[in-house]
Specification:
about 120 residues; mainly beta; N-terminal domain of MutM-like DNA repair proteins
Length: about 120
C-alpha cells in the first residue's frame, strides 16, 4: 500500500528474540523480546540457512503445516530492505524471513513506531 521506505530503520530489531508466533486466518504476528512486533497481512517467505524455501504465505486452505515455529527462540542478527518491495530479518540460525509489500491494502505493520506498509 505505502511501500517500504528507503530510510526505514530496523536497528531496534537487532538482538531481539522471537518469543511468540501467532497464526490467524488473515494475519501472522511475530512478537519479539524486549518490545517489538510485526503483524503481517500480506505475503512472506521463510528461507533456510542455505537459501532454500522452507515456507511461505499461501491462500487458505493450506495442505501442509506452517514452519514458522522454527523462529521461536531465534535472535535477529541482521535486517535488510529492498525499497519499496520488502524487508528481511536474518536470524542467528541463518534462517531468514522476508516480508513483502504485496497488496494495494496494508501488508504489514511494525511496532514500536506505528510503521504501516
Amino acid at each position: 500500500m505505502y511501500g517500504v521506505p528507503e530510510n526505514l530503520d530496523l536497528q531496534f530489531l537487532h538482538g531481539a528474540d522471537v518469543i511468540q508466533v501467532c497464526l490467524g486466518l488473515y494475519q501472522v504476528q511475530f512478537i519479539f523480546h524486549p518490545d517489538a512486533n510485526i503483524s503481517v497481512e500480506g505475503e512472506w517467505i521463510l528461507y533456510a540457512a542455505d537459501g532454500s524455501e522452507l515456507d511461505r504465505s499461501r491462500p487458505s486452505p493450506r495442505q501442509e503445516a506452517f514452519q514458522l515455529h522454527r523462529l521461536l527462540g531465534q535472535r535477529v542478527e541482521k535486517t535488510t530492505l529492498s525499497s519499496p518491495s520488502w524487508i528481511a530479518l536474518r536470524f542467528e540460525s541463518g534462517e531468514s524471513l522476508r516480508i513483502f509489500d504485496s497488496s494495494e491494502y496494508e501488508s504489514f505493520s511494525i511496532q514500536p513506531g506505528n510503521i504501516v506498509i
